[in-house]
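[09:14] KT: can someone run the structure on this one? pasting the chain below
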Amino acid sequence: MKKTTGRIMRTSGRKNPILALPGFAAVFALGACVDTQITGVIVEDDIEDPNLMVAFVRGINSELHDNMRDFSGVWWYTGSATDDFNNDGVSTNGEEILEYRNYSDRPGNFPWAQLHEAAWAGYYGVDVTSRVFADESNSHPLIARSWLISGWAERMLGEIFCESIYNYGPGAGALMGPNDHYDPSQTVQIDSIMRRSVNAMQNALAVAEGAVAAGAATPDGDARIFDPMKIMHAAHGGIAQAAMLLGDWDLAVSHAAQVPADFVLYSHADPEVEDNGWFDVSFQNDDFTLWNTPLHRVFPDDPRAPWVKCGDWRTDSLRTTHGPRGDIRDTGRCDFAPGYGGEFRAESNSMPLYSSLKSETEGLLTRPDGETGEDADFPMVRGTEMLLIRAEKALMDGNLAQFADLVNQGRAVYGMDPIETPMTAGALEFPNALDDAWSILDGERYVLMHLEGRRFADMRRWQHPYITEGHFVNPRVRAENGPPRVAWCMPIADIECDANGDINCPGVGG
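[09:31] RB: done, structure tokens below
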């Protein structure tokens, strides 16, 4: 197989010139019999070849996947600010401060730049593939997948950051009219970001529906990424995700209902060029553990998010504080990954190492071939999440019977026992007793999408007591940093403040 990587530069005189996409790399599978890697500048006019478009869009897909697989990716920034994992505070990168939401410093770069890059790449992919496949501009799966990637990147921007600044893509991106003036000194709020996500997903849906109606073939035979029916379902799901965060529940529910309950679409990793950040920090570097999170208290019989105790306390009782390293025993269960496994204490040596192993159908730490490893995939849209969106609307409407039915449809996908219809709607709480409708919904979304960067947005829209009441997961880090501030989203990154002379980035500490 021949591989080519490099940057794409525009040399033509078209409107809205795009100079270069930093770090944009495409893996070109050209079907040759030898392995060849060519790194350098790829002239845009040379790219506009139908034979290269599959590889081109694969590269765009990698731009999105980079946000999840990196050591300090989306899951890290959002998980550190929520109850997703227990950051023991010894990381040299300094993100441990995010666990307590102090934000005395802005994030330096990631994932701000990479999410913008992924959205840019998707819009640029639409621009290029629409020209290359002009006769199929309303029905080509590669165009639909490019729209899908932009929609996902926009959604993640809105889930994580308090605001954004748009300066990428043809015409500065979607939803800017031909007479609009891009103002680099102005930020846009979360609802604007989500509208852009909805717009990209609606375009993805229209093209995917056209492809299904036309009987379009799956490019390169890769159903994981390019199957038009899967793209269509994922676009419905993407609209539902963004519309829910916009508060447009009618739009969210109508599209969520179009996604089959057992549907899952991933941001796929390439085992030759990508890895999984959670694998690195939980097995290779032991930086984080799931000990003392809500997760490890509800996991033992939950197939949606299985976990493994690499270490455990020598005593029978569950500790609520850190202990000496001699008080932690090796369970012998984490030797499954040669070169990485075998550690049973978190980096500080004061907590047992509990690590997540999502199932084969869920990806994350398990590759499609069933082997646990560092190149595993991340789910982006699930039918079971769509059922929870519909269940939340039923709960808001006071229909507890419908709420329970929708929750149970999702649980049935995983072979789980149904819940009983809750007696009351109740309220969110931390720790979660799972004894009323709101706390059940909280628990279901938490477990289903654990370590995927989605928790922060739920806490913000719900005004979750984990943040409003100043809860914490790690007693030691709280003792060192003081009580947390109420912060529902991340500030614009330093890289924007440094590069954009028009924007005013005041301090964020306090």
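[09:33] KT: thanks! The CA atoms of residues 88 and 348 lie 6 Å apart.
[09:34] RB: yep, looked fine to me
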